[in-house]
Structure formats: structure tokens, C-alpha cells
Design goal:
seven-stranded parallel sheet, single chain, mainly beta, 20 strands, 3% helix, globular
């Protein structure tokens, strides 16, 4: 099996039961299911929220990654220089501001009460995905390389849609 392929790191794991692969350190905040967090949440490392409720602002620090599915955030979500931000099938009662992301951005099927601003991301081959969201407020995307896409799944926005998001 040739090793000159994109997923070559998986080959030892598939073919050699004794193979070891380096893992990324992660911080588990809640077990699968539901959990509550009162007050501000600061994300360092990798934080996964699944069916959680956060009663306060969420701040994603530079180099950190937030993965939130089926989660409710009662406050703003702010990420500056984060490695990645994934909001899926979630509710954010406050603004979402994602700036300078370096790896991946996905905001999918999320209800946001407030503005959404996705700007200045340089995510390489990880195209930002903004799809199927309901936004009460403006949706603005500027200066992202590459520009966000929606894969044909429209966003519902009650406010102006500007910049790179104008066609989503």
C-alpha cells in the first residue's frame, strides 16, 4: 500500500494493531448528553459541548477549538485567532464573532439571536461553512480566505447580509 496518499496516517492504524498514532490533547467539559455550566466559559485546547447549556459568554482563545452540537449558549460566542469553531444544531442567544480562524469554521443549523460576524479567517483547504442557520440580526463575512460557502443550504437572516456572505 503506497504511503504517498493524503490519509497515510491512518494506514498503520488500519493494518497494524500495535501501531500508535499521536493524538491531540483535549479537554472534556461535559459527557455526551446534557450538562450545565454557569458563568463564563473560556476554551483552551479542544472543548466539546454536546447537548450542553452554557449560561454565560463563551470565549475561544487563540489556537483553541470549540465543537458545540445541540448546545444552548445564553450569551455571546467570541473566537479570535482560534484553530477552529464548529457550531451545529445549536442555539446562541447573543452575537457570534469569529475572527482570524486558522483551521476550520462551520456554523450549521444554528439559531443565533444577534449578529454573526465571520472575518479574516485563513483556513487553507478547510472552506468555512455557513449553512442552514437562522440569524436574528446581520450576517457579515469579510476577508476570509477562502470565502465561506453554504453548499446550497440557505440561511434565514433577519437583518442585512453583507460581504462574502451576501450570496449565502
Amino acid at each position: 500500500m503506497p504511503l504517498a496518499q493524503p490519509e497515510r496516517g491512518l494506514i498503520p492504524l488500519l493494518l497494524d494493531g500495535a501501531a500508535a498514532e499521536g493524538l491531540v490533547a483535549g479537554e472534556r467539559v461535559y459527557p455526551a448528553g446534557s450538562g450545565r455550566h454557569a458563568g463564563p466559559l473560556t476554551v483552551t485546547g479542544v472543548t466539546c459541548l454536546d447537548g450542553a447549556t452554557v449560561n454565560g459568554p463563551v470565549t475561544v482563545r487563540p489556537g483553541a477549538t470549540l465543537i458545540a452540537t445541540g448546545t444552548t449558549v445564553n450569551g455571546p460566542v467570541t473566537a479570535a485567532g482560534a484553530a477552529g469553531v464548529f457550531l451545529a444544531d445549536s442555539t446562541v442567544r447573543g452575537p457570534v464573532r469569529i475572527t482570524g480562524t486558522t483551521d476550520a469554521v462551520a456554523v450549521i443549523g444554528t439559531d443565533v439571536t444577534g449578529p454573526v460576524d465571520i472575518s479574516a479567517g485563513t483556513t487553507g483547504s478547510d472552506v468555512p461553512l455557513v449553512a442552514g442557520n437562522s440569524v436574528t440580526g446581520p450576517l457579515r463575512c469579510t476577508g476570509n480566505v477562502p470565502a465561506p460557502i453554504s453548499l446550497g443550504v440557505a440561511n434565514t437572516v433577519r437583518g442585512p447580509v453583507t460581504g462574502q456572505c451576501a450570496l449565502l
